[in-house]
User: What shape does this take?
Amino acid sequence: GPKISQSEARKKLKLLPNKRIILFFGFIRYYKWLDLLLQVLPDLVRSDPNIYLLIVGECFGSFQLYQDIIDKNNLSDRVELRLKYIPNSLIPFYLGSCDLLVAPYRHITNSGIESLGKVYAPRLLVTIWKSGIELKTLIEKHLQYTNSPRAKFILDNWDKARTQFIKVMPNEYK
Assistant: This one.
């Protein structure tokens, strides 16, 4: 379907219009690293008080691990939970509503949300890239959105700069 404006999406979903929304979308499973995202959220909020995490999707197993992190860090006013099945017709609205869609996976999977995010979300953050080409594409998009001098320098010197990147893998993946 067509892309939906952020303001239209937020209005339809009754989301706060003035927050910077980070979206975690899809099945909630341990391998998707939602716990890590919740653990770093206090640091993100300290750096930008307008950050708000929206967690949308069905939870497989208990949500208690995640709720404990939310409670321990007093994040209930920074996290909104919509723990339910989302019909296909609403997916473009959720993806279009965010400022950043995150897919922090502990190990490589075929990510449907990553594919949809490339179409509907304004920005997409994934923890594992499959090749240097994908890394370069992410940096190109970063430059496009931010006009970052560092991104421009890296791209202008790609052959040398790409050798300076390392792929970080979670211990669980080794």
